[in-house]
Amino acid sequence: MADEGSKVWQRVLAQGSRITASSLRVLFDQDLTRPESFSRYLGADAAQNGLENQDLVFVDFSKQLIDQQVLDELLVLAKDLQIVEQFVEMRNGLKINLTEQQSVLHTALRADMKTSLIVDGLDVVAEVHAERQALKKFVDAVRSDKKFKKIINIGIGGSDLGPALIYEALFDTYKSEVECAFVANIDAHEIKSVLNKCIAAETLFVVCSKSFNTVETLSNARIAKQWLSEKLGVEIGNKILAEHFVVVSAYPDRAAKSGVVAANSFKIWPWVGGRYSISSAMSLAPMIAFGVDVFDEFLAGMRVVDDQMQNSAPENNLPLILGLIDVWNCSVLGYASQAFVPYAHQLKLLPSYLQQLIMESNGKSVQVDGEPTSMRTSPVVWGGVGTNVQHAFFQMLHQGTDVVPVEFIGFAQPTHNEILAHDTLVANMFAQSKALAFGRSLAELNSENADDEIIKHRVMPGNRPSTTVLASNLSARTLGSLIAMYEHRVFVQGVVFGINSFDQWGVELGKTLATEITSSLIKPSKNGESLKDSQDSQDASTRGLINWYRLHRSNR
Ligand code: F6P
């Protein structure tokens, strides 16, 4: 963790004071080599790792409010905190998730078969590959059998966002004979609307839950089972139903105990965090859609970036550099939020995915040692797909009182042949980052002879940082590389903040209270009488809400 009083951190803060006296316009005028100095490739050691040219991802961070001195000091910080060494320790199975006494081994999920990694006496990589073989057999059978035309993933958080992101992102590139749908919310409107479009005999439910304790998932699985039993005309408990269910969990025994009887189940391990489980069996639905070979490509893209994070020289270590810039924006320059804007409709779920990855990992205010953090930790993560959001929140990004660093993500080659439309899409992305960085001054407007009345409203302050991620196409490899890059950036930030990025105690209290309140809501109400006496544990507002709800609760 970066000690607030340490010399290294103080030097980083001093850079913050220096750079804010400058501006992106000045920095670009002073250094004509900026675009080359502040851009790198993801998977830069690609040749060694067998990454083809078309899968390279170019990242331009020259429009960040940094210069060489800033980058140098950030890299000194990284060295001082031994960020890369700590990453290697994580990759080697050290139990860095101290509050849950767990190793953090999502990187083992894509480790090469030749790797051996013994944790608690078990070779975890061998386990992963054995499970992958079983998955392959199952996936190949489902794909060749063609009985199931619809796959419904039931899961929430990491058990939903990861597989949904892969499916949506890669659908246009790889096509699929089966259709996937994703159900997460306990609001049954969601599952009902999905089931309304399904034929029971052709539907396979993939129930994903690492813990198999998650109420949303259990509720949706129960509704799915009921629906299937009614539609197929068989009793609940009939083994025909089990053929329509697959379970993915670290605790498959809990699935059967909770009533989810599945003919097949696949495991993940307690050392895979929910939001880091995209490279596990949790992605079974997109595996069925596209085949395991495509998923293997996705994993290969991740592995290249895992290796880059571990082996690259710091000055070329893109995940490390971008993680440090995230810290710079959030904790040094004080920008409280960060927007992700893919100019690729297939990546429309990326902002939601990153919300969980970043905010559930780093939205904490207690350090590993139990002391309060001394700096701003996770930014508020948000975003949307370009160009749509240009007509929604970009006004605020350009002229609002808060500065929001933006990350643009785009591709050179679309999967369609409407090239002119694509050129316009990309032009818009470049235009936005340019407008954010350089704005438009009063002097420039005056030279345009603009209408005096409104001229001040047309000034664009500029000096708003952004990064542009540009890849040739949205392949499985590219997507894998991007996701691994974001995972490692979160790791870098967590080390600097001194927090445990791999637990999520902040979501516990709400779950416990919801269980308590649910029992109050469903108690039978006599003549609309309130439950005042039995609700003394509730605060006045919550008690009022409960009583109002009980008065108006549906009787169906
Ligand atoms: O929101 C808390 C959380 O535990 C996430 O970390 C996780 O991705 C999600 O709930 C779902 O958990 P599970 O896979 O155990 O159902």
CATH topology description of the largest domain? Rossmann fold
Cα-atom radius of gyration: 25 Å
The bound ligands are:
6-O-phosphono-beta-D-fructofuranose
Q: What is the top-level CATH class of the largest domain?
A: Alpha Beta
CATH superfamily of the largest domain: Glucose-6-phosphate isomerase like protein, domain 1
The shape is globular
Tally of helical runs: 22
Structure description:
The chain is of the alpha/beta class and 556 residues long. The chain has three domains: 7-92 and 295-497, Glucose-6-phosphate isomerase like protein, domain 1 (Rossmann fold, 3-Layer(aba) Sandwich), CATH 3.40.50; 116-290, Rossmann fold, CATH 3.40.50.10490; 505-552, no CATH class. Helix content is 47%, strand content 11%. It contains 22 helices and 13 strands. Strands 1-2-13-12-10-11 form a six-stranded mixed sheet, sandwiched between helices. Strands 6-5-7-8-9 form a five-stranded parallel sheet, with helices on both faces. A two-stranded antiparallel ribbon has the order 3-4. Strand 5 (150-154), helix 8 and strand 6 form a beta-alpha-beta unit. Helix 8 (158-174) runs parallel beside helix 13 (284-290) and helix 8 (158-174) runs antiparallel to helix 16. The protein is globular. It starts with 6 loop residues before the first helix and ends with a helix. Residues 156-159, 209-211, 214, 217, 274-275, 360, 504, 507 line the site of 6-O-phosphono-beta-D-fructofuranose.
Provide a concise account of the structure shown.
The chain is an alpha/beta fold and 556 residues long. The chain has three domains: 7-92 and 295-497, 3-Layer(aba) Sandwich (Rossmann fold), CATH 3.40.50; 116-290, Glucose-6-phosphate isomerase like protein, domain 1 (Rossmann fold), CATH 3.40.50; 505-552, no CATH class.
